Amino acid sequence: MNTSARSLGCLVFLTSVTGCVTSADPGTLQGTSATADRQPSAEAAHALRVEPNTGPSAPAQNPFAKAGFFVNPQYRERVLETIENVPGKAAALRQVAQQPTAIWLDRIDALAGLPGWLGEAAKQTQAQGTPRVPVFVVYDLPNRDCAAKASAGELHADADGEARYRSEFIDRIAAEFAKHPDQRIVAILEPDSLANLATNMDVPKCAASLDLYKRSVAYAIARLSLPNVYVYLDAAHTGWLGWDGNRSAMAEIYREVLEMAGGHERIRGFATNVSNYNALDGDWGWKLESSNPCPNEYCYVEKLDDALTKVGISGKGYIIDTSRNGVATTRSKWGHWCNVKGAGLGARPEVQPRPLVDAYYWVKPPGESDGVSDPNAPRFDAYCASTDSSSGAPQAGEWFDSYFLELVDNANPPL
Questions:
Q1: How much is the pLDDT for 405?
Q2: pTM score > 0.85 for this model?
Q3: pLDDT band, residue 37 (cuts 50/70/90)
Q4: Residue numbers annotated as active site
Q5: Does the N-terminal or the C-terminal CB of the chain have fewer CB atoms within 10 Å?
Q6: What is the mean pLDDT of the chain?
Q7: pLDDT tens, residue by residue, 262-310
Q8: Tens-place pLDDT, residues 177-194
Q9: CA torsion angle for 41, 46, 50, 51 (degrees, to 10)?
Q10: Cβ contact 279:296 at 8 Å
Q11: Could you state, in order of their start, the residue ranges of all structural domains in the chain?
Q12: The pLDDT of residue 11
């Protein structure tokens, strides 16, 4: 994604892929947000309507409390297959295989597997005697990742993308979720989306997607906010929105979108650090950008919660992606987001590990590539060939065996 001399915003990601956006100097980004006064566009005048959801929503509680995590059997099998090539790491890999990871619904075709995932979650719940909570990343926004290349999606605004997103994607997901009223479900909505509206209005595709993103995310919230579904909005990470002006702009965007959807009660909370590498604690972030008041991800969660409370969004819980943040400083720039060298598995998924946090969770399945490193390959993004990126990477979402083993070796806490 495009960056400037002062790295600010890192986008988050794709099929568990990610991009990184850095725009202008952090101190000037406040002026590039989508909250400034502006005239309604011709596109907005003819936009599809969003009907607020006024029906029952999920309880205002941590969905993981008094429950267990759903373990994706396909991810478990993929990790166990790796043992054949590195039998000396068998014990560590078996531990990784038991960790819960999110299921990414990143294209319309992926929905064919949704009934099976929900059925498997029901089986695990029955076998264990307590709820096993699956986490789905809903990730197919029209004009997806407007400042990225590696994670661009299949739906486009100029090809009926908004209508297709609603009818072929969100409506189908909502219908499947509704068939399992007794199953607790978590949905993380659209990584790498609304944060672009706070910092990247200088990118033409992002500017053109402003109203489209707001409407589409609001529609997704309204349709997926069911009594058994706990919705979390993506909230980027400290390397993107850690600055005071960016957080304030983001809070206003959330307020507007949630009003469109039916109110902030429609969501459980927010997800941060998705597919990124920011460690939970410490002052390591100041080595990357000294002007950021949030040098770690937990500081960002605390300050974001304050900003949200100021605009009337309170009592929310947070999911922090700890899949690859075990090593504090793994890059020379915050804007380097793709298959970062030296990264390690982070904290194991855990329920309510500290105030505000509903769970640490491995939202990005460790081992899946962020993007291809071959400059001649389709969807190549130059950030995937940065000095901080691992070489030999396959396309986003594909298994990157050598990188996975590096994550295992660098795990913190150790396996």
A1: 98
A2: yes
A3: very low
A4: 192, 370
A5: C
A6: 89
A7: 999 999 999 999 999 999 999 999 999 999 999 999 999 999 999 999 9
A8: 999 999 999 999 999 999
A9: 130
A10: yes
A11: 13-25+58-409
A12: 39
Residue type, 290: S
Output the six-digit token pair for 397. 């979402």
In the chain, how long is the greatest CA-to-CA distance? 63
Residues 358, 319: Cα–Cα separation, whole Å: 6
